[in-house]
Amino acid sequence: MSAIEEKSVHLGISKDQLMENAGLTLARALKLQVGGSAGLKVLILVGPGNNGSDGLVMARYLAKWGAKVTVYLTARRPEIDLKLISALEYGVTSISSNDDPDFSKLYLSLKDCRLVVDSILGTGASRPLEGRLKDIAITINHWRLRGSENQIVSVDLPTGVNPDSGEADSVCLDVDCTFSLGFPKAGLFQFPGADYRGKLSVLDIGIPGDALDGTDIGLELLSPKWVGKTLPNRPINSHKGTYGHTLIVAGSKNYIGAAYLSAQAAVRTGSGLVTVASPECIYPILASKLTEAIHIPLPDNVQGGISPEAVDFIRPNLNQYTALALGCGLGTSDGTREFVQKLFCERPGLDIPLVLDADGLNNICRVDRWWEYLPSNTILTPHPGEMSRLSGVPVVSILDDKVDFTQARANYWKKIVILKGAHTIISAPDSNTFVSPFANPAMSSGGTGDVLTGIIASLISQGLSGGLAASCGVYIHGQAGTLVADQFGNAGLTATDITNELPKIIKSLKSIAYSSDVSKKLG
Question: How far apart are CA 159 and CA 453, in angstroms?
């Protein structure tokens, strides 16, 4: 952000203009959020730097629109503070923490307001909170613990959250909503920082598009407009062959549902044809549930998994398919492990896009330098436990900086890597890394990962590259989970609930992209 702001100055947009833009945009967003500003009682906590100045500009506009605004100066401001002077001219009340040694004025202001704005520290803060700022944060947190229903909104990021790493101070402010200025900050998507930010909105503050040229931005947030524009087209003169043929190798006696979920997700995402290759012992059950899919019963072993002989049913016919998804519910019996290793390692060099998930990962990771045997266009979809088994690194170390870890593994393995979880990370070798905006506890249930595998494989079959399919698939999956959670709450969601929503989500994303294009043309 510092580099982008400097580039904006060179392009003719001063830092003061960006500050004015930020304050106005913040005031508008706040007004919209609460349904109007007339008579609204707002307390704005103002810090010593630019974040505090943004808050003062916001205070001026809110007061101009009829709000009753108090600014609480948490630290020393410039001796001649033009932003404060301008706010006072519009009737804003000012309280300095220097005149409030016991924080009694702060307590009274907190009790008297409807909305609190945290405009104390922004992207320039990286040190622990100390002195008066720490005491102020403790005071606000105590006030929150007493059961206040007043909302706290943060400007750019909650005070106490590191903007890069997501580390959180022991007295970090826990807010209801964060308005991130210009672009979202990486620390808002890493834990524990993500726990403190509340609902996130990103506000346009008028940064010129050219200000991004030459900046080293390697991390991007997935957006509905980008996904909608990236999804494959469906021409009216198409047929089922236009949209590919997805092969799902999945399932075992104990995990019949995994094969069903991944295949059904591939169907509901739009693959022209879907074939399910599963152990013969579960074939009758799958065939009765998956009426739209083609079925290949495979030789099974005594544990109800796929036997090594099944390789002869799969490998010779791979050229019939446009994508292969392998691993969902396979199990880890000796015979199944031998099947997976034989398929990829006995004669390396398979040339088919591969989505490797779950027990596909758990079975292949026992092979020394396993990644060298997989197709070049492979997508790995581990959760943190599977990532630990693949890499030999403890889960706690992976989660300590999951963005950098995922990027490093994608580059080392030369594979696309999806690290699943809250704010899923998608990284391709020597390419930008994407972050999912979704963190949904409702999706912490069995089978949701199988659905993701089917979605991604289906998108590849329809013509997307592995990297685009991975990113779009993660977004569609997360959006579907959010839609279901909005209806039923954050417990009790099933993987089938997500699958049922997929066509609606895809339709809505394409509508968003279309509306955006129409607006640009009309503009």
Answer: 38
DSSP code of residue 128: P
CA distances from residue 376 to 348, 358, 414, 415 in whole angstroms, order as listed: 11, 19, 7, 7
For 111-153, what is each residue's pLDDT tens digit?
999 999 999 998 877 778 999 999 999 999 999 887 777 899 9
- Strand pairing partners for 247? 275, 324
Q: What is the pTM of this model?
A: 0.91
Q: What is the Cα–Cα distance from 207 to 265, expressed in whole angstroms?
A: 40
Cis peptide before 192 (omega within 30 of 0): yes
Does residue 322 contact residue 291 with C-beta atoms inside 8 Å?
no
User: 30 with 115: CB under 8 angstroms?
Assistant: yes
CA angle centred on 441, ends 427 and 157, rounded to 5°: 65
- Three-state SS string over 25-82 comes to HHHHHHHHHHCCCCCCEEEEEECCCHHHHHHHHHHHHHHHCCCEEEEEECCCCCCCCH
**Residue 347 in this model has a pLDDT that exceeds 90:** no
Phi, psi of 116 (to 5 degrees): -115, 130
Cα three-residue angle 183-185-188, rounded to 5 degrees: 130
Query: Could you give the 3-state DSSP secondary structure of residue 400?
Result: helix
- Check pLDDT > 60 for residue 6: yes
pLDDT digits (tens, 9 = 90+) for 16-71: 999 999 999 999 999 999 999 999 999 999 999 999 999 999 999 999 999 999 99
pLDDT digits (tens, 9 = 90+) for 473-491: 999 999 999 999 999 999 9
CB 457 within 8 A of CB 265: no
**pLDDT interval class at 522 (50, 70, 90):** very low
The set of residues, in sequence order, having a beta carbon less than 8 Å from that of 423 and lying 6+ positions away, is: 189, 190, 194, 435, 436, 437, 438, 439
Q: Where are any strands of DSSP class E within 196-341? A: 199-203, 219-221, 245-249, 273-279, 294-298, 323-326
Distance of CA 373 to CAs 26, 179, 367, Å? 52, 46, 9
